[in-house]
Amino acid sequence: MKIAVIGGGMAGLSTAYYLSLQPDNQIDLYEKSGSFGGLLGLLTVNDVGFEGYYHHLFKSDKDIIKLAHELNIDHKLLYLPSSVGVYYENKIYPFSKPKNLLTFSPLSVVDRIRLGLVAVYLQKFVTEKNWMKLRGISASTWMKKYSGKKAYELIWEPLLKGKFGEHADSVSMAWLWSRLYLRSKSRNGSHEELVYLDGGFKLLVDKLVEELKTRKVNLYPNSDIVEIKPSSNKGLTLLSLQGQTLQYDKVIVTTPNPVFTKLCPSLPETYKAKLDKVKYRAAMVTVFELKNKFMNDIYWLNINDPSLHILAAVEHTNFVDASKYGSAHLLYAGAYPAQNDALMTMDKKTLFDLVVSDLKRINPKFNKSWVEKHWIFRDKFAQPIVDTNYHTYIPPVKTGIKNLYLVNMSQIYPEDRGTNQAVRDGKAIADKIISGEY
User: Fold this and answer.
1) Where residue 128 falls among pLDDT bands split at 50, 70, 90?
2) Closest residue by Cα to residue 98 from 87, 84, 79
3) Contact 106/115 with Cβ under 8 angstroms?
4) Are residues 319 and 262 in the same domain?
5) 132 and 250 assigned to the same domain
6) Structural domain includes residue 221
7) Measuring CA to CA, which residue among 173, 183, 247, 181 is closest to residue 4?
8) Residue 83 located in a structural domain
């Protein structure tokens, strides 16, 4: 069988990898950019890989951890303590352990107790078996009712508005529950432990690419596929910008929905309607290589201050020791703006200055002289807006065109999108194709 996979991020790489377990298949993997893995393997500091967007794994991310075992790089998995903070009213509050909540002075004692009880309820009493009762309820409504108005405004509203903007009030409580529930799986008592790869996710991407080459998968970076259409022999035809036509028995697309819609104008209107109904927020991340440590002991800082442009400051080298990177300190400053927001369109120098100004608010000692290097990345289709009706219009894997399939982050629900889910869904479709179900 001749199969094309469109998109060389983690979903595309995983799909091609698991399809190649059946040696009779010819697998061709097409990627628009010059490299595979998206931003997972893009950067290096002192010859050590790290990511264009901040990444870690939860201990419950079994699919990608299993893949690391299959690729014989499981000895590179690092299980490391994590630390979380909240920036509010010009102060950083530690927020990693239950005792931190008890001393969180911006909330009254009663509000702290309510917030703690809500966290326990969501992590212990809402499970994979009964979470669906939350999907039609907005996170704002649920949290205001159970954690209280003040706790909502101080803790949850900045997260929801920072992530979803004007759509914050319609985001499903099922999405927020999933974030909290999956994170709780990485806790051991009061201690949170997250997973990273020694050498960065570049190690995983490079190993996957090497394995695909060994298995005779054809890799096509810088591909110029511009259209997918049904062919007369019941297969599918790919058209390139240069006018080349390529015939396949099956095609699996892993691009965002708007890209897929343009690639395949002959999709059924009912399917297109579902693709179009999924709306996205963008992402902007500025990555810094610094001479000095930015925060004393916080890895992940939630910025609960709407006057700042960034939602999170993630000091990677407070998670993975700076010695791994030749003593360089690595910091991410990220936001999820609207696709037409100024953060997505302004020139890079202006954006850099703006982010530096925000970081200086958080740490007044910080200035440009600390910065050795910096990188800026922007993605228009970073975060699907998971509203209370989202479950009714998730696009199916089967597209309505025979032998044409879609696997992408818009189908991940109720979890937030992530590399583990990309591996899981890539394996799922490969298994179904190999078994003959698809």
Assistant:
1) very high
2) 84
3) no
4) no
5) no
6) yes
7) 247
8) no
